[in-house]
Amino acid sequence: MKITYIGHSGFSVELEEAVLIFDYYQGTIPEFDGRKPIYVFVSHKHHDHFNQEIFALSDQYPDVTYILSSDTRMNEKYMERRGIPAAAREHIIYIGKNAEQVLQGPGDARVRVETLASTDEGVAFLVGMGDRCIYHAGDLNWWSWEGESDDDERRMEENFKREMKKLEGRRFDAAFLPLDPRQEDRFSWGFDVFMRTADAGKAIPMHFWGDYSVIPKLLSLDCSKPYRDRVVEITREGQVFEF
Question: What's 149's DSSP letter?
Fold first, then answer.
């Protein structure tokens, strides 16, 4: 498994059978083996997770499928005005919250797509192919901010932990998780709950707005001791990891 940090919450995951791309926003998408099918995932409509440049991949590669959160839904007239290639428009699949879908992969392979409900917009993705399983949180996180009301705090905690409970006992080869420095001393709450709920072989921070220092900050916290050897330290866009 080859993982490239494209930028912000955007990653590519190259498996033996296929390529997965998540939440492209900015940065350089790597070149891929054109014989492999490509599956492009968009967790929600926010501009830092959904850049319509992804549809140009259909002009470059023969087999691209787009799996988009249903909140991004576009009609044909809009897509025509935006210049989205017909080859891309014909291969868009919309998926909602708490859904499951199995897609035909290469040969006899299947792509298993499950979603959770985000605590912000859209969905989180659980994607399985062969014996590999990947989790991409999108904006599913414990979004706690200084100055919020007690009711808002309680509602957010309950909503986040409800979704995390669905992951109890689940094993992921790689999990992409928000670690947002804007939350100040609460930046690690969601990351920590995930790591204590699910089993992730590699935990990969994202959504840190270019502030790479937030990763060593997490690793310095006592709470990270049980899993810090599984946290991937990102230092730059375009960084490649092979597991």
Answer: -
Position of tokens 């994607």? Answer: 127
Over range 173-193, report the average pLDDT: 98
DSSP sequence for 38-85: EEEEE--SSTTT--GGGGGHHHH-S-EEEEEEGGG---HHHHHHTT--
Cβ atoms within 10 Å of 132's Cβ, excluding its own: 18
d(C-alpha 238, C-alpha 5), whole Å: 5
CA distance 43 to 160: 16
Q: Which residues contact 185 (CB under 8 A, 6 or more apart)?
A: none
pLDDT of residue 135: 98
Residue 127 has pLDDT above 90, yes or no: yes
- 140-160 average pLDDT score: 96
Q: Which residue's entry shows tokens 């949180």?
A: 137
Nearest of 46, 64, 43 to residue 55 by alpha carbon: 64
**CA triplet 57, 60, 65: central angle to 5 degrees?**
45
pLDDT of residue 60: 95
Closest CA to 176 of 133, 237, 224, 130: 133
- How far apart CA 243 and CA 201 sit, in angstroms, is 9
Place of tokens 């839904």: 73
Under 8 Å CB-to-CB from 152, ≥6 apart: which residues? Answer: none
User: What's the pTM value of the predicted model, to 2 decimals?
Assistant: 0.97
Contact by Cβ (8 Å): 157, 171: no
Report d(CA 106, CA 114) in Å as an integer.
19
Q: What is the pLDDT of residue 108?
A: 81
Q: What is the pLDDT of residue 23?
A: 98
